From TrEMBL, chain A:
Gene3D superfamilies: Rieske [2Fe-2S] iron-sulphur domain (2.102.10.10). The keyword Membrane does not apply. Belongs to the bacterial ring-hydroxylating dioxygenase ferredoxin component family. This is Rieske family ferredoxin. NCBIfam families: MocE_fam_FeS. The keyword Heme does not apply. GO terms for molecular function: 2 iron, 2 sulfur cluster binding; metal ion binding; monooxygenase activity; oxidoreductase activity, acting on paired donors, with incorporation or reduction of molecular oxygen.
TrEMBL record, chain B:
Keywords: FAD, Flavoprotein, Oxidoreductase. This is Ferredoxin reductase. Residues 6-303 form the FAD/NAD(P)-binding domain. Its cofactor is FAD. One of its GO terms (cellular component) is cytoplasm. It comes from Paenibacillus montanisoli. Residues 322-410 form the Reductase C-terminal domain. PANTHER family: APOPTOSIS-INDUCING FACTOR 1, RIESKE DOMAIN-CONTAINING PROTEIN-RELATED. Gene3D superfamilies: 3.30.390.30, FAD/NAD(P)-binding domain (3.50.50.60). InterPro entries: FAD-oxidoreductase/Apoptosis (IPR050446), FAD/NAD-bd_sf (IPR036188), FAD/NAD-binding_dom (IPR023753), FAD/NAD-linked_Rdtase_dimer_sf (IPR016156), Reductase_C (IPR028202). GO terms for molecular function: oxidoreductase activity, acting on NAD(P)H.
Amino acid sequence: MQELLQWVEACEADAIDEEDVIRFDHGDRTFAIYRTAKGSYYATDGYCTHEKFHLSEGLVMGTIIECPKHNGRFDYTTGAAKRTPVCVDLRTYPVKLEHNKVFIQI
Amino acid sequence: MSDLGMVIVGAGETGARAAVELRTAGWNGPITLIGKEPLAPYERPPLSKFTLISEEEPKPATILDEVRLSEHNIGWIPNNQVVGIDRVNHSVELSNGQQIRYERLLLATGAAPRKLTIEGSDTTGLLYLRTFADAVALRTRFQPGKHIAVIGAGFIGLEVAASARELGCSVTVIEVGPRILMRGVPEEIARIVEARHRMAGVRFKLGISIQGIMNTSEGHLITLADGTDIPCDTVVVGIGAIPETSLAAQSGLTIENGIYTDEYLATSDNDIFAAGDCCSFPHKLYGGRRIRLEAWRNAQDQGTHVAHNMLGASKPFVDIPWFWSDQYDQTLQVTGLPDSGVLTVCRHLSERDKLYFHLSGENRLVAASAVGLNAKIAKDIRLAEMLIHQNQAVLDPIALQNTEVKLKSLVNA
Ligand SMILES: Cc1cc2nc3c(=O)[nH]c(=O)nc-3n(C[C@H](O)[C@H](O)[C@H](O)COP(=O)(O)OP(=O)(O)OC[C@H]3O[C@@H](n4cnc5c(N)ncnc54)[C@H](O)[C@@H]3O)c2cc1C
Ligand code: FES
């Protein structure tokens, strides 16, 4: 079955500090939205793939998000798992910026 | 190097991480991972938490299942103890009689619970917690309404106490020291943790020793030094762990509070390395102080690190210690070595979330510890760890207390 994708407004562009992350909930789904030091935006699933901890409470370092629970790491631009204990990649979502608002395609 | 393989003794956290990293780092020869336990490498932290309280039958949280072991072409030998090392011929002997030769050997033998001995007491039937099988044994005893006595108010004892309360058992914690968590966390945090347990209904007997334990028809009868009797259904002992050094000692390797290694995690034999709970090593950032850790991330970090040195990298291990413990809805985290500080300052994040910084005489950050909700404290502890890593950054104690000053702004400042 093909998923029906839609662009959803997530937040104001400056709601996220540089090199930081916030949580965005939509319906019963939850996401993490990132802003790099250079001002690009990315989005991933909200929960870590190891246990159910929200990545928006973790630390952003360059293009890495570190999970707050056991310090597993992902590259949030690709979703790739980068450090134990996580071994399952994170799902990522397309992001666009329009009129100073961040939209994600989910 | 010759075509001999890399051999790892102990298929726990450290051994598993090292095995995978050897492959990732490009070692193409044989890798053999030998473990005493029947199970493929699994996580121990859930054993005192989720494994005890989960509604479904618990399963081990496997680190490397058979699929991944074969993907990485790691030869795993379960149910076998390594009983001897022939250092001259570079080979180990297994309990099944098999001999395996090694190019480099890693001892990742972990630690075992310290046993309680009380003269004249029957200590048979007391339970300990280190393995998945131990956790299953505890779980079947933790029925609602049962009375559980926990001897020892360290991390494992307290996590077991919290889980037993969550399962509806009544719980008494007995500790000979004057307070809980004597090792590892500052008194301020210990007090908050104790209050949380008391709120949950745990009874404490602190600063008192045990005179005797008797087996009774219902369970056990513990008698304290002041004559108080504590009847209970089950006794769980958590009085610390002893590094598993017997194999190393018998092979003539130097032992000093664990298997002695240098900063590269090499033992007194250059072809034999040791890592994880079983070893003591000098930490450069703490003036070369020798430490031995019993911590999950250290096991991972050292396992990963030592793989490279086994392949000839000779990089010193300088990662900062980090530890967490979950009890009820509360988490505590510690980074660095709090006992190397002389000044402690507190950042009150909220009524229940507290972050403590431990500074040396020169106001260098040597450790940080925190208690509260995981979401509230985790990021700050991680930033503190980065500050310690920056050569123990010199910091202003006033700024550290001020929640207006973002910790991130101090990193690399
Ligand atoms: C109940 C419990 C809860 C924990 N919770 C936390 C926590 O919340 N946070 C935290 O930071 N840390 C926690 N830890 C600590 C963490 O799990 C350990 O630091 C970690 O497991 C150490 O890994 P290791 O590989 O060095 O040793 P281990 O995991 O003990 O593995 C060593 C393995 O070697 C085997 N072995 C020993 N000798 C031989 C031999 N001669 N031949 C073959 N095999 C041998 C042993 O059977 C064992 O399987 C907890 C530990 C326990 C027991
Ligand atoms: S929950 Fe994210 S690393 Fe464990």
